[in-house]
Design brief:
Helix content is 38%, strand content 20%. By secondary structure, it is of the alpha/beta class.
């Protein structure tokens, strides 16, 4: 019997971002939805909201693993809100639940998700990163990041 479990691609990045970074994240979300994968993120604002918005524009499914215990804290583009009550520790759930991770710019929370993903053996792709991290794969465009994540 064929499995109906869909590929889950995690999009990670800061809760606040510039318009340029938001546009990159939105494009990543669109590409994830076009592939038929599920977009998984932290469910809040910034990169997470922009990526979820992009996925919804293409009819995609979004999951947000929130740090708190209030479903209403999720951005409006999240289909399924998972309430972790774990604060930043929820980053481990995001990394573990993703088949691959795509980091769009980011701050220290993103850095922790990158590290956790690498430790868990997940492929991690970055767009517009300010860090040089061994094991991370740089992508030149949202399309390239999603294509490479999809094939792994």
């Amino acid at each position: 019997m064929k499995s109906s479990v869909r590929t889950q691609i995690g999009v990670i990045g800061a809760g606040n971002c510039s318009n340029e970074t938001g546009a990159l994240a939105e494009a990543v979300g669109r590409e994830i939805a076009k592939k038929g994968a599920v977009l998984l993120c932290g469910g809040l604002g910034g990169v997470m909201e922009a990526a979820a918005f992009g996925a919804k524009l293409e009819g995609g499914m979004t999951i947000g693993i929130l740090p708190g215990i209030r479903r209403e804290d999720a951005n409006p583009w999240i289909d399924i809100a998972v309430l972790s009550g774990m604060g930043h520790a929820r980053n481990a759930l995001i990394a573990q639940s993703s088949d691959a991770l795509i980091a769009v710019s980011g701050e220290y929370g993103t850095l922790s998700e990158i590290a956790l993903g690498l430790k868990m053996g997940k492929p991690v792709f970055v767009l517009d990163s300010k860090w040089e991290i061994e094991g991370v794969q740089k992508a030149e465009s949202p399309q390239e990041a999603v294509e490479r994540a999809w094939h792994l």
